[in-house]
Amino acid sequence: MLATYAIPDVIVFVVASALMLVGAVLVITVKNPVHSALSLIMTFFGIAIAFIELDAHFLAAVEIIVYAGAIVVLFLFVIMFLGVDRPDVDTGEPLVGQRPLAALGVLITVAGVVVMMAHSHWVTGASSASTNGIPSQGGNDNIKALGTAVFTTYLYAFEITSALLIIAVVGAVILARKERSLDLVGEDA
Amino acid sequence: MHLVLFAAGDPLYDNGVGWAVLAIVAIKVLVAFGALMGAVTLMIWFERKLISDMQSRIGPQRWGPFGLLQTLADGIKLFFKEDLIPNQADRFVFKLAPYLALIPALLTFAIVPVGGTVTVASHTFLLQVADPPIGILLLLAMSGISVYGVMLAGWSSGSKYPLLSSVRASAQMISYEAALGMTIVTIVLATGSLSTHDIVTAQAHGVWHWNVLRLGLVPFAVFLIAITAELNRPPFDVVEAESELVGGFHTEYSSLRFALFFLAEFMNTITMSAIMVTLFFGGPAGWVPNIPHIRWVFPILWFLGKTVVFAFCYIWFRAALPRMRYDQLMSFGWKRLIPLSLGWMLVVAGFFVNKSWGFAMAALVLVASLALTRSFEIGATREQGPESVLPVVGARPMSAEKLRAVTDGDVESGEEEN
ipTM score here? Predict the structure, then answer.
């Protein structure tokens, strides 16, 4: 099977996978939450490389812009503000029975991947997995195809998602901005 | 004009990739790196000299003609300084952070078209390091990544002021990225492509095709402000506000790592000047005299000339404008720039469909902005008017009467308030 791949493709795949796997393992093994966040960024870069290898350039860019560039920044923002990076934070289990539940989750995920492997070419079928029947296109055409799909076939899903995000933002603002009256100020301080 | 239309990427790769092509790419990378390093040296000298002129000082003058070698002398001095790492520092991240600041600055320059196309030994190629399909999105990705340099430097120092600085940096950079993205969307709409080469080619047919005029001045103004904030350059340099935060995120840095931060900052300034030229001023587009053999030089000269103008503007900002207060900075970004860039993008998109859609969008945006203005007014009365409640952290300070009411009653609690 390997013989059908060009050597550069294999090298890129191995490097991207190594980045992803090492990053993902480090996220859960390192003690310091800031180091975890950094490992997460490493994983995202691996995923972005894999996307570029699949000719999904736009997804690669979005992976970096949104996940590495915004979401992990917010994670770090929270870590720095709340100071959970200090060593005296309690490391007990907040949820009862979370270990068996986690094992169950892992089992379900692995089973899903195995089922997917059995039914489709998820290793070889880069084109079938990434373009959903549309013939694989490189460069700008790829982005155009994605834009057309989002604004025609999947228009409603796309717009509803954006409405959902707005609702989430407004809800978060309302929950966060609990108004305190002035006479509470002295006691608060 | 002088630019040849190439729809799909660099023509260098059209005939497959051989050793000659690899060599050309390697040379492009090395030349770009060397030129950028040289430009940074000149930029630091230019900034110091210009600011001292504006402040009636002489500025660097001892080393080299006009003090041109001053940067080199400073670099050598920093190189031999003791490299300190604070006791409380996270050593790995502390060492990593300067490189995280430097690398995005370098990578962004790769997508800047420096000139037209050149043919060397039957290989035709673009005068830009790379023309990836994601094109200008690389700018957004790299400006998203560049926040980590500042942020992790501040955090890993294990010191109070740098930490405050890094929290400011992350909030500021995320806030202004949205406005930045929105103006880039406007440009991409006008071009129909993400590639920087296509963006430049679309503007190559005269001044009226330049995006700064074609899209109206607003996207350019928003982009200039947002990118200045992304760079943490004055007047948006609250991240290293000396009067509040000692030295900001690099308070604890010394020696070569300190130099790397400055290298990154000035490299970013140059790169963003170049990006601005690319997006709004036609990049290397300009008049080319018909002199055989050296026609390809003139686009490069045009590009350099335009970039120097913006480099000058950044220095001018620093000398002329006072620093913004942090809460002003945040509310300006969220309440003014983002709605403005979003509204303008909708109007431009409408006019690209046809005139009636354009006017309909303009009317809609007008109504929306009136509603927004009204809501800002209501919000202001809730923060400062008679109905006011104590604002959350980071909001504007209380009005004078409110503050007096809080502080006058009990001196102890008043002190704690401050």
Answer: 0.76
